[in-house]
Description:
InterPro entries: P-loop_NTPase, Small_GTPase_ARF/SAR. It comes from Heterocephalus glaber. GTP binds at residues 40, 94-97. Keywords: GTP-binding, Nucleotide-binding. By secondary structure, this protein is an alpha/beta fold. The chain has a single domain, classed as P-loop containing nucleotide triphosphate hydrolases (Rossmann fold). The chain has helices spanning 5-8, 65-80, 104-111, 113-119, 137-151; strands at 2-3, 14-15, 22-28, 32-38, 55-61, 88-94, 124-128. Strands 5-6-7 form a three-stranded parallel β-sheet, with helices on both faces. The chain has a two-stranded antiparallel sheet with strand order 1-2. A two-stranded antiparallel ribbon has the order 3-4. The radius of gyration is 15 Å and the shape is globular. The chain starts with a strand and ends with a helix.
Amino acid sequence: MEKTGLDRRDTDLRVPGGAVGTDLTDIMAPRKITIRELGGCMGPIWSSYYGNCHSLLFMMDASNPTQLSASCVQLLGLLSAEQLAKASVLILFNKIDLPCYMTMEEIQSLLRLPDIVACAKQNITIAEISARKGTGLAGVLHWLQDQHRTRG
Length: 152
């Protein structure tokens, strides 16, 4: 796991590198929140983890338009799952520190993101981040804290 700027600010949030399998991470924010990371290649078994999911962070690579399209298909599958209808969703566009990243305007156009948000049952938040540089991660932590507070 890569350590980020948030780690250096006395929080316990680590942002993993590219996800291949599954991983569990606990963060203290201020209460313990357990995050289960499932890599994109694990898509066929994602549904076995829906039952206890209250919040969903879905990360996409903003520097790879081809992968964005494939990730969008996976996102649509998650958003249409009945077990996730009440989950709060944070869509993260990562790698905004790279010179080849797509702007939010380009991403919204490519993925028809406003239509996805408008048609989804879930409350969706969107953020741009750089996991490597720590950009935007404080906002992710605040989102997690807010979701955890509302769930009790």
